[in-house]
Amino acid sequence: MQASRSSKSAADSPCDTSAQQCQDFEASAASNTPQLTFFYDGQCPLCMKEIRMLNRWNTSASVAFVNLLSTEAMIAFPEVDIDDAQKSLLAFTSDGATLRGVDATYAVWAALGKGHWMAPLNWRWLRPITLLAYRVFARYRHQLALLLTGQRRCASCELPAPPANKTDLKN
Any coiled-coil ranges, and where (predicted)? Predict the structure, then answer.
């Protein structure tokens, strides 16, 4: 990633201006260089469940997953305010754009070729609801994790290496 990143707002995301840009973003994910650096809460059981699933699909290394709570990993990103990033998902695109919340979620799924599953997040009539729902989820994710998993936080949530090829996905 570049040392300095432009500070684009969610409105500048590659996925909420046109369907063509979203398709272009998904298509560009086929290259071997990370299209996206995605930051996650490594102590959130619900977050880790999704990150593990996404990581299994990351066979072409199109996404670099970074645990916000890993001191070693975060040294490479001194511009990231960890407290702020804990409040809303954060991702950097390879061209330097900063994505947050719903836009970061859509971007990671799109980079892994699964954007069509998250397309409703950007439907014009549904977007205000998804933005509100995301804010509620982000704020109460640890309480929801306790309710759904029995754990508010996991002490040591590890992210395994992604499979080397698609045949590894069957295991």
Answer: none
How much is the average pLDDT of 77-81?
93
Task: Specify the pTM.
Answer: 0.71
- Across all residues in the chain, what is the average pLDDT? 78
Alpha helices in 1-112 (DSSP H): 19-28, 45-57, 71-74, 82-87, 101-111
Residue 137 lies in a domain: yes
Burial code (b: 16+ CB inside 10 Å, e: under 16) for 108-119 equals bbbbbbbbeebb
Q: Please state the domain count of the chain.
A: 1
Structure tokens at 81: 């305010």
Report if residue 2 sits inside a domain: no
The answer to whether residue 21 sits within a structural domain is: yes
The average pLDDT across 120-124 equals 91
Q: What domain range includes position 64?
A: 10-170
Residues 13 and 17: their CA atoms lie apart, in Å, by: 7
